[in-house]
Amino acid sequence: MRASLRSRILVTALLGVLALYFLLPVYWLLVASTKSTGDLFGSSGLWFADFRLAENLVNVFTYDDGIYLRWVANSVLYAFVGATVSTLLSAAAGYALAKFAFRGRETVFNLVLGGVLVPATALALPLYLMLSNVGLANSYWAVLLPSLVNPFGVYLLRIYTEAAVPDDLLEAGRIDGAGEARIFFSVVLRVLTPGLVTVFLFQFVGIWNNYFLPLVMLSDPALYPITLGLTSWQSFADRQPELYQLTIGGAFVSVVPLMIVTAVLQRFWRAGLTEGSVKG
Amino acid sequence: MPATARRRKALVPWAFLAPFCVLFLLLFIAPIGYAVYQSMIRVERTGPMGLGGAREVFGGLENYSRALSDPAFVDSLGRVLLFAAVQVPLMIVLATVLALLLDSASARWPAMFRAMFFLPYGVPGVIATIIWGFLYVPGVSPILDALSWLGLEVDLLGPSTVLWSIANIVTWAFAGYNMLVIIAQLKAIPGELYEAAIVDGAGPLRLVWHVKLPLVRPAIVLTTVFTIIGTLQLFAEPLVLKPLSTAISFTYSPNLSAFNEAFNTNNQALAAAEAVLLALGAFVLSFGFLRLVGRGRR
């Protein structure tokens, strides 16, 4: 369909204005990360002053014996391990719910669906008490374990499996004498790859962005993910003004790679969704 | 098939389900049960002046009535309900409009704009709040500078404005994500459907209203449910903005209040009751919404 020139100009101009809104805070962060603490409060937020990006970054990475790098490593650990394991568990459960008829199937599925509607923050407080009873609070496990359960992933992968994995394929494998585990790992997982990538990415970003769970669980700064680390800097900044600049520099460093990844991997964000979540 | 083989076959789906189900029971169902149990406990002190030790006894629903008769907690419930009543429609309309604009034949460079709108999803909510916090503070914020140059003096962190400053952060962070879910469904619509509608003489607006919107309905329902649950959990934004705004207290949102009871005043039972009330509210509203749209469909 051809659109008139007038409507093209109008729509594109509107998109441009909206883009300014979404980019403004990122642009401000970029400019602010190059400034000294003095210029942060004394110069216009929209343009560069004395350019000190390198110095600021050195400060971010060396402050407090390089604790920032430790937070980055922790975030990567929580998000990568959590997303990998939870995606595999969701795939196995989604496959069982999609391709086997057994008693209790709908009960399990309805419980999982109910789990999607439970706010994660309501679980965090009782989980903290439970984990501290068994001595696991304030440990890597306290953040990792709850990140392994992703009911929405099970839901997505059940629907994705129904649409993407033909029954004939499974029957062919069984006739060839392949065991059930082998069929799952070497046939089903391969067919499910686009859906797995989508579920992995959502869970990865979900864990990476999570704040409430680590805040409740952790008291040792050496275990903090970036979100918790940066807010701890920010909360001390009124007493130690150089922490303003560290917070901004640290936010800048943490935000840039993830934004590039979300932009580059957009294709995958959609791939699984088209077949999955939003099916009638 | 012999009976043993049949029994073994019946176990196959459970073997695939087991790892997830065990963790789901331990880390999802058990905490809910534990929170409900905790919310019904009363700690009784024995001995002279309560120094003889503490004893936990069954207190029934008294923690709930205590939470619901605390004006600060009731205020916080009202605040998130007001917040959700504005934020949910705002978010869904904006996400739908963004998706439809990008999908329309009039949009130039849709891939580039889509990437720009989706960008904030890669920024954790607390970091988005830290950044916007700087943009709300007089003396640092270029937005306030520009407004005051125009002769407008606004306080974005005052008692009547800070909730909407938070709404702006939430909108900025999640509109692109919701947009993407709706776009995914728009892309799944077969092209012939559009062609048929255009042959029938439908203009772009009628195409949107009569073809596209009905077809992306499931995506809109899904994003609405997640937005309802998300907005009721309001926590990180007010906590991070708290040092900047005197309008934000520890009872600003129900979640903040429960967190405060658990970690600052050490009243786990009251915290549990507040968390259960919040989860119940989220469940009732999201489930109620699903029932409502489910009925409209049949």
TrEMBL record, chain A:
ABC transmembrane type-1 domain ranges (all copies): 72-265
Gene3D superfamilies for the chain: MetI-like (1.10.3720.10)
The entry's keywords: Cell membrane, Membrane, Transmembrane, Transmembrane helix, Transport
Principal location class: membrane
Annotated transmembrane regions: 9-30, 76-96, 108-128, 140-160, 181-205, 243-265
Pfam families in UniProt: BPD_transp_1 (PF00528)
Positions in coiled-coil regions: none
InterPro entries xref list: MetI-like, MetI-like_sf
Compartment(s) where it occurs, according to its Swiss-Prot or TrEMBL record: Cell membrane
Membrane topology term: Multi-pass membrane protein
Stored PANTHER family: ABC TRANSPORTER PERMEASE PROTEIN MG189-RELATED (PTHR43744:SF12), ABC TRANSPORTER PERMEASE PROTEIN MG189-RELATED-RELATED (PTHR43744)
Stated family: Belongs to the binding-protein-dependent transport system permease family.
Protein's UniProt name: Carbohydrate ABC transporter permease
